[in-house]
Every structure is written in C-alpha cells, then in structure tokens.
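Hi there. Long-time user, first ticket. I'm pasting a complex I've been working with (about 403 residues overall). I'd like to know whether the download I got is complete or cut off, because the file seemed smaller than I expected. Thanks.
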Amino acid sequence: MSGAEEAGGGGPASGPAGAVPAGVGVGVGAGAGAAAGPAAAAALGEAAGPGLPDEAGLAGARQLQLQEAAGDPDAPPKKRLRAAEAAEAAAAAAAGSGKLEERLYSVLCCTVCLDLPKASVYQCTNGHLMCAGCFIHLLADARLKEEQATCPNCRCEISKSLCCRNLAVEKAVSELPSECGFCLRQFPRSLLERHQKEECQDRVTQCKYKRIGCPWHGPFHELTVHEAACAHPTKTGNELMEILDEMDQSHRKEMQLYNSIFSLLSFEKIGYTEVQFRPYRTDDFITRLYYETPRFTVLNQTWVLKARVNDSERNPNLSCKRTLSFQLLLKSKVTAPLECSFLLLKGPYDDVRISPVIYHFVFTNESNETDYVPLPIIDSVECNKLLAAKNINLRLFLFQIQK
Ligand SMILES: [Zn+2]
Ligand SMILES: [Zn+2]
Ligand SMILES: [Zn+2]
Ligand SMILES: [Zn+2]
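Hi, the file is complete. Here it is re-exported in full:
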C-alpha cells in the first residue's frame, strides 16, 4: 500500500534513484572497514564499482555493468542496448514526462490495496479494478462470513462469473515502470526481472559456503565482504561433519517421504478418486464454514471427507493466516479392522500447491473417523485460492495395508 503511495508521491526517477546508490556506497564502505583484510579491500573495489556514480544513478550503474560485461563476448550488445534504454527512460523521467506515469498509477492501481497489479486485474460490473490477490481475498472472506462478496467501492455483487479481467489495464500496467523490491528504484517492467535477479546491488543473496552450512543471507553488496570473512571454510573437518550431518537429515526426511510413497504404490490394494469438497454452514448460534464431500466409494468401502478452516477458529475471517484441515470418515461397516494409509493431493483441474503428507489410520466400526489432520497447503495465499473457489477439488489416494 505504502509502496504505491510513495511511488506516486515522490519523483519517480530523480528522488529514489539518486538517493539509493549513495546509500549502497556507504553500506559497502562501512562493511569493508570492519573487515580490513587485503581480500576485503579487493572485494570493496569490486562491490562498490557499480554503486559509485551517485548522480548518474540508474544510467551510470548500467554503464558500469556494461563495462563489466565487456569481457563476455555475447553479453555486450544486449547490455549496451538495455543500458541505452534505461538511460533514455531516466532522462525522459527527469525531463518531466514522468508526470503522466504518476497520474496513471492512481488510475490503474487496485482499488483495494492501492498497489499496481502485478498479474491479472479484475473489475466489478461498474468497472472498479481489483488485483487478483485482493479479488481472491474478498471472495474467500465472503465465503467465511457467509455473505455475498461485494465490491468495496460500489457494493455491487462480485464473483468469479460476475467479474471479468481487464486486459487493457493489465497491458497498460505492464508498460509502466515499476519499483525494484530490493533497492526501490524504478525500472521499465521489461528490465525489472533481470535487474532483481542479476543486477540489483541490494538483492538477497546467500553465502557460497551455504553448502557447508553457512546460514548467511544478505544484500548482494555485502556478499563479498561476508564471504571473505566467513568462518565456515576454516572450520575443522569434525565441525563440518556435524553440520553436514544435520543437512543430510532434512534431505533424508524428504527422501523417506518419496520412498514411502513409492513403496505404497507397490501395494496390492490401492484406490484413488477425485473428491469435491462443498461448503456448508454449521447450525450453531454463530455459524461456521465447513466442507464436506458427497459419499464416495474407494476400495469397496463408502467414505466421506470433511474439512474445516483454521481448525474451527471463532473468526477465521479476522486472521490473515488461513489453514485447512481434513478428516476421513468410513461410512460402511467392516468385518475386520481396516488399516489404511491415505494422502490428499491436488486434483486434476486445480492449481493449488499441496505438499504430499501420508497419514495412517486403522478403521473399525467403533472408531471410523480420523482426527482432523492438516491439509498441507503451501501457504495462506494458496488456502484463500481454495476458499474463493466454488468447491474444493482434490484427489484422495487410499492404500490398504494387508499383513
Ligand atoms: Zn489489490
Ligand atoms: Zn465496484
Ligand atoms: Zn534493485
Ligand atoms: Zn558464509
């Protein structure tokens, strides 16, 4: 929110672009002063290079990257072109044509979060714009509160079928300069990805000794200084062995999961089905959202799945953190205990990201439902995607364990 407002308020090119490289220079100087070895001094020369020309700002930095790349036979032409483009953009902005951009920011921004939309843009039937993130959030919140979702501006009803994307706005936004998330300088969108990935002095990097356990994360312009002073390469073999052991362990856990899935796949009795969770409300005084699938048959038994949000927290709509948990219920009678492993994965038509977790339960006639277990969705954003949808479509795998 504040990002867009700042970008709209301050002069886009002259202000931030001029100020930041100076800050970068100071940062490097202070860091190198602390670690005053000869290697650090050499590192300083290298790291401070692109940050030096304060006044020239963006164009100057490009120029230097251009010179740096001179040794690389196939990089220069491209870089020269990009540098020229960036210089042009900076010059144009300084000459005052940036004003239109500023005006466009407030015209094209999401009416909910006031940021410039990064991906899809939706509009209500009266034309109010919402970025995809805010749109999904509004739908998910409405689902939790059992209300019809409405446009925050005009209160007209919104839904996936009532709102459409606005391609013209999406394209217009992609033509506008946007801010680097690390150094806050403005770049044409076409250059931004490359800048954030490869060129930004403030981008987050990791120590090259990460492989032997160095946990350091920090801005690129501090990387050389850190690596010169990093304690990890001087650790003894014994110390390293301990660190590597720990790292191996987490890797092993992941391998175990996949190995156990593989071994489950060799079982004689495997069943899977697509399941559709539908939203319902409890009939408590304060009704709560829950999900339930229709009965389905797998491995010759009848089952139902239930799911709930934030483990039935009182007001999940007040929390930013969203989770789903689920329960598997056996609906038919069994003559002997039924030992099963089960696993929920994403359905064939949904794009939610779920990491596989295998659960285990012995079903009998007396104990025919599992506890609620977490549905391992990657994060709250993914969870909101599921809540915003009409139904939740997943795929259930059941493995019957026979001894
Ligand atoms: Zn938004
Ligand atoms: Zn509206
Ligand atoms: Zn940057
Ligand atoms: Zn390190």
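A couple of notes from our side: Confidence is low (pLDDT under 50) at residues 1-83. The domain at 121-194 is CATH 3.30.40.10 (Herpes Virus-1).
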